């Protein structure tokens, strides 16, 4: 979270703390001083994603191929300067930060509500001033960077601590991010992602030493300084009285500064007069209303101490609470081998959320770009919950010994007050032959086990009967069908027009470059399509979770959004479909896509029919219409828009979109 107002204070009150630097020059100096060690920048990726996402469109579900190209260009710029990058992502939400996490989620809800109101009023995307990152952007950024050959780390504790520790331990030339906590940690230099000019590799560098000089402090003062301004450990509400006392006695009060700037100066003035000893901290505890928790200041200061560092504020007999230790005896999963593999995969960014569930039995999902006023589409958290319940069962092997451990979910959706986690019961999936145990799924080898992995994965989405047809498809297309069939089963308001739009996207996306997709212009933006785009992308993270749990029947790269989805393209296909566009128009005149279109659609409709779900036609026309008015359709497309669609299904999946080229048809 950082220290509220500190970075703004530096920019306005003491700008000498930061200066523009040339990263190429810093790297070259490092090479001269350390010829055996290449220059490395450690990147706080979570604070960078909003600066990396620069495609013009951001509300429609994500411009994933454009974004992938942007990340590739970012990496190339540093590689050209001989600078290695190491990317860190938050792997957990620590308990001490849960309240702040919840507070931010409710703030995000308000921002998202304003975005939907704007779209409904103006039928276009708001300006960048209302920007929120596309749903699941941090998750897919992690896998994107890994696919681009970068070292990508998912943390076991707070990311800023691990970033600062890595930077110090590996003598990195700096940390790239946007978090004022990096002004407090005694680690390598801190570079701003916000001010980075990629074309010239110049940015602002913040100096802790210059900050200390401006405030009359020493480096050892900084952790206590951060705590007395309020941080993730010491809440601001406990400090108001203390700040008032400091302001009264401060010689630096300036009416032209904001109150926060004056508080920062006053607290610095107070600390500068306090002897650096743990007895001083004991005295401070007496003047602060810390309630029953008198260890807050100790824990706050300790949170900034990196491995091997000590502080004069902390008695030598106090253990550094930042050291991560795996509490195996309290872990949800008692199998040490399983837990260790999950942990290693987690750190290497190879799985998704699995370690959190197996270790703490807790998981969370942030906001999505969902319209809370659309009562026809449930929250994505609820749509995918039945699938997650099956995945939890696979992971925790429910029912094999009578134990049914509950999983704690912190998922954001309309109506969830987030006052406590929801306790979710695992539910066994209907796997032919029974659910294999986790050791079989993860460690066993051979074609029979590969089949078990695939069938268990499909069973999590109620598609175990479609295994033969799906295995005949290219992996991204099979995954797409799996997700779309599940979505159509779960959400009864989804129509044939919605189905047509989704199927058209994956078929038309093939072969389109990032530049072609960037050039696609939308005359208007439909709010319901925005909502559906976010729901679909969140579904892809559910595929990642199932894939990780089932021993990777798919390559993770085959489940990525740039393989099967583009926000603007979906908007275009959605609007075309609901206006009654011809099949020729929907598929951009490519007749070779007609058969795949009908066959993919037939498979999905057959799967829905098996669950007694009939997909109805419900064209919404041109605009934000919730009614069911009918329109005249082009005859070539009319058959696929009948009021209900019964697929002429005769194993039509064979012969197109094969994993390997077959004589019966073409790959697309």
TrEMBL record:
SUPFAM superfamilies (alphabetical): PIN domain-like
Keyword Transcription regulation carried by entry: yes
Tagged with keyword Iron: no
GO BP term, pick one: peroxisome proliferator activated receptor signaling pathway
Localization of this protein: Nucleus
Signal peptide (residue range): none
Gene3D superfamilies: 5'-nuclease
GO cellular component: nucleus
Alphabetical keyword list: Activator, Differentiation, Nucleus, Transcription, Transcription regulation
Domain of life assignment: Eukaryota
Subunit structure, as described in the record: Interacts with ESR1 and RXRA. Interacts with PPARG; in a ligand-independent manner.
Function text: Functions as a transactivator of PPARG and ESR1. Functions in adipogenesis through PPARG activation.
Family designation: Belongs to the constitutive coactivator of PPAR-gamma family.
Protein name per its UniProtKB record: Constitutive coactivator of peroxisome proliferator-activated receptor gamma
Organism in which the protein naturally occurs: Rissa tridactyla
Gene name of the record: Fam120b
